[in-house]
């Protein structure tokens, strides 16, 4: 007995000695971006879709609910002082209640997390509609129609289960009770199965919207726009916290890429939008419509990027024509507009530069590869954003408060590029 106690004591001493020698485990060091995001609360985003649920596959949920409900038994404490017939009645009723709970309650919980369309900003409404088109959900009249149909399914299941429970309570024989319960299971299963397509659509749109990077519609934004492959993604990568995929293929930016940066005592956002082609609005695809929605509905400083090397696949004439169309259609009175000429390191390959400089006055010349012109560009849109706040140019008081409510960047992120 003494020997066992001595061994336990020795093991305890050895364990304590090891802990003292090794010390506590070191926390894994975060990179500057993660520290900055944690410090200033930019994760999670203010997007109303970030809270959308991860909906379980409806087929698996139905199979599990039927299996569990079939095996349900009344708790023993509720069987006391009751006849066998009453116990059977309560058992059958309990099974119906279980199936109802497993099918209706998850759906109710998920639907409560979907924001109502009337509460969404115009830009967010456009994003929802484009996502529904992309997911082949045009059969619905809209986002609200999809949610209303899911609510109607929930009500049908709930009301049917309630009626069948009452029928079980009023049944006279145990065989009738079992028959009613079986009919209730079959009926609820058919109702749920007939609405599988609806539930799969709900699962699809929830996942799509939850994964999107939606800008904070209350914050003033630097909007990087232009034709495909002119260097927009590279600029956002250099000037903000965003790290988009940078490649040489048209429409690299498949979704909105967001970045953040600090000016004085405020934090702002920068958005890299999908590239636009020169064509009518009715001919544009959903990717281009996403860029147009940001131009139409967001309070922004527009930075228009042009590539004179024509490596982007669009001629200089078409890029200038697109610029004129954008200014006519989307530029609001007194809204800041900044012209940027990219790929300045390839100046020898510029085409029709005279035509460009005849149409555009005082553009900012930048080269991401050589990192030239970036300080000048940042100073330009910094001045415009400060004016945006101080003179209330296109910004509401709500936007000013939102920008001032977030602290500026700290450390190296706050320095000039």
Report a brief summary of the structure.
Helix 4 packs antiparallel against helix 6 (143-170) and helix 6 packs antiparallel against helix 7.
Description:
The protein has 14 helices and six strands. With 417 residues, it is of the alpha/beta class. The protein has a six-stranded mixed β-sheet with strand order 2-3-1-4-5-6, sandwiched between helices. Strand 5, helix 12 and strand 6 form a beta-alpha-beta unit. Helix 6 packs across helix 8. The chain is elongated, with a radius of gyration of 31 Å. 30% of the residues are buried.
Task: Please give the structural blueprint.
Layout: H1 2-22, H2 32-40, H3 58-71, H4 84-111, H5 122-134, H6 143-170, H7 174-194, H8 196-211, E1 221-226, H9 232-239, E2 257-263, E3 266-272, H10 286-297, E4 300-306, H11 316-330, E5 337-341, H12 353-359, E6 364-365, H13 374-390, H14 397-404
Indicate the multimeric state: single chain
Distance between the termini: 72 Å
Beta-strand proportion: 5-15%
Mean pLDDT: 80
Radius of gyration: 31 Å
pLDDT < 50 runs, ≥5 residues: 25-44, 246-252, 393-401, 406-417
| Proportion in helices | 40-55%
Total helices: the number is 14
What would you call the structural class? alpha/beta
Which series of helices and strands comes N to C? HHHHHHHHEHEEHEHEHEHH
Largest sheet, if any? 6 strands, mixed
What is the strand tally?
Answer: 6
Apparent shape: elongated
What spatial order of strands do you see in the largest sheet? 2-3-1-4-5-6
């Amino acid at each position: 007995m003494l020997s066992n106690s001595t061994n336990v004591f020795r093991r305890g001493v050895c364990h304590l000695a090891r802990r003292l020698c090794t010390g506590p485990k070191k926390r894994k060091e975060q990179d500057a971006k993660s520290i900055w995001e944690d410090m200033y609360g930019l994760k999670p985003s203010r997007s109303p879709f970030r809270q959308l649920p991860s909906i379980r596959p409806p087929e698996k949920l139905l199979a599990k609910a039927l299996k569990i409900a079939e095996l349900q038994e009344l708790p023993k404490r509720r069987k006391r002082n009751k006849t066998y017939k009453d116990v059977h009645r309560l058992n059958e009723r309990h099974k119906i209640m279980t199936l109802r709970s497993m099918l209706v309650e998850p759906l109710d919980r998920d639907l409560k997390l979907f924001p109502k369309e009337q509460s969404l900003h115009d830009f967010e409404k456009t994003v929802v509609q484009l996502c529904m088109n992309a997911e082949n959900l045009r059969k619905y009249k809209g986002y609200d129609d999809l949610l209303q149909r899911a609510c109607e399914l929930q009500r049908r299941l709930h009301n049917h289960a309630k009626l069948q429970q009452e029928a079980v309570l009023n049944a006279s024989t145990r065989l009738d009770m079992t028959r009613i319960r079986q009919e209730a299971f079959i009926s609820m299963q058919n109702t749920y199965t007939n609405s599988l397509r609806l539930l799969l659509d709900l699962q699809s749109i929830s996942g799509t919207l939850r994964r999107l990077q939606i800008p904070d519609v209350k914050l003033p934004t630097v909007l990087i726009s232009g034709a495909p492959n002119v260097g927009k993604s590279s600029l956002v990568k250099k000037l903000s916290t965003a790290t988009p995929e940078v490649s040489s293929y048209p429409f690299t930016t498949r979704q909105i890429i967001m970045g953040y940066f600090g000016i004085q005592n405020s934090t702002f956002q920068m958005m890299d939008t999908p590239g636009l082609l020169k064509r009518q609005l009715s001919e544009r695809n959903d990717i281009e419509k996403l860029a147009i929605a940001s131009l139409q509905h967001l309070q922004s400083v527009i930075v228009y990027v042009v590539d004179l090397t024509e490596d982007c696949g669009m001629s200089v004439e078409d890029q200038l024509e697109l610029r004129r169309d954008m200014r006519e259609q989307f530029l609001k009175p007194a809204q800041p507009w900044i012209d940027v000429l990219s790929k300045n390191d390839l100046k020898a390959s510029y085409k029709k530069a005279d035509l460009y400089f005849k149409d555009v006055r005082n553009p900012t010349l930048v080269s991401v590869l050589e990192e030239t012109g970036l300080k000048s560009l940042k100073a330009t849109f910094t001045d415009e954003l400060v004016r945006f706040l101080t003179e209330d140019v296109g910004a509401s008081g709500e936007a000013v408060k939102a920008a001032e409510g977030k602290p500026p960047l700290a450390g190296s992120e706050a320095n000039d590029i």
